[in-house]
Structure formats: structure tokens, C-alpha cells
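Support case: user asked for a sample of complex input and structure output to validate their parser. Sending the pair below.
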Amino acid sequence: AQKITQTQPGMFVQEKEAVTLDCTYDTSDQSYGLFWYKQPSSGEMIFLIYQGSYDEQNATEGRYSLNFQKARKSANLVISASQLGDSAMYFCAPWGTTDSWGKLQFGAGTQVVVTP
Amino acid sequence: EPEVTQTPSHQVTQMGQEVILRCVPISNHLYFYWYRQILGQKVEFLVSFYNNEISEKSEIFDDQFSVERPDGSNFTLKIRSTKLEDSAMYFCASTLGQGARGYTFGSGTRLTVV
């Protein structure tokens, strides 16, 4: 199985601050993508952001941005101006690699708690 | 915005019983998936389904599990004889193609085996 590492099991962040969630993965493929999903305590999986490895610009979706460093096999999620509603589990998932062709394989996740 | 719908949201079943989890994927999607998340753990791939057959399954997806798309709209996961360790959140997902964008998850069914 593909190795996906989210080194931060849990993080506290103050409201309105930015937070960076780390994700590294192991692949020898050149063309693939990377998803980030949010899972609040209610349990559903919410798509946040996606970037393909050949996309020239780092992806942004509102307050979410991806810091994609292909050479380092790293795709960190940055949440700017954190809100209380950002408290959730966050998962990264490579897609389209040899090990994850046609399916998503998720990291162990990072629990984010936003404090007032 | 189109959704993937899963029913029921929560099911409690006795060990050894059969359970069927139901999903209605987005209507024009062609690829369908089941994932599982044991409480406190990561989301794990179970099976993918395309053109009315399984395209890939994980080692978790043993003979106790089966999937079918009986009527062109529903996509079901059957667990034949549930075990305590089958207790988990089960997510259905669908995509239009093998492209990554538009990969949509349902809100999940929490299965509790007692």
C-alpha cells in the first residue's frame, strides 16, 4: 500500500490564525493528484481542494490553499483565518498513482481544534 | 448541487445478521466505490465498481462482502454475516470518470454490530 504520512496527529490553532497541515507521500509516478478532505464530528467527508502534479500554480479554494512541492512529495494544506467551524479531522489522499489508481488512499489524518 | 445519498444513516444489527447498506450515486456517474472508516482510524478503500462489475477490491473486501447495482440507480453493499469488527462508518462515493475532479462522497452509514 502507498505510504502516506500526516505527521501531526493533532493541532490547536487560535481563531483567525493560519494553520498548515503536513502531508507527504511515497510515489515514483510523475503524474498524479492530491486531495484534501475535511471530516467534522458529524462524520461526513467534505472535499476541500485538489491539485494535479503538473498544475503550475498551487491550488486555492477560498481560505484553503495547497503548498504542493512535487520534488519533496509533499502537499501541505494551508487554512487561512481559521474559524471555529474548521475544527475537524483533515485527511490527505493521493490519487492516480500506481498504488492509488482509480481509488483514494487516505493518510491517518490530523485533528484540528480551533480555539476562540 | 448533485449529491450521493446513503441510507440508513445509522444501522444497528446483531452479530451474524446480514446487512445491506444503500447508496444512490450521482445519476450520470459511472464509477462507484465503498470505503470504510473504523472509529478513530483512517478511511480505507473497500471496492470499486464500473460497468456492472467489480474493478478492484481491497484485502478487507472478503467473501462476506458483496456489491451490486440492482436497478441502475442504487448501489448496495451487503455484509453477509456481520462481525463485531465490521462496526464502522461506511462511505459510498461516485465519479463520472476516472478523473479526480468530481469525486463525491455520501454522508455515510454508521454500522454498529452488537
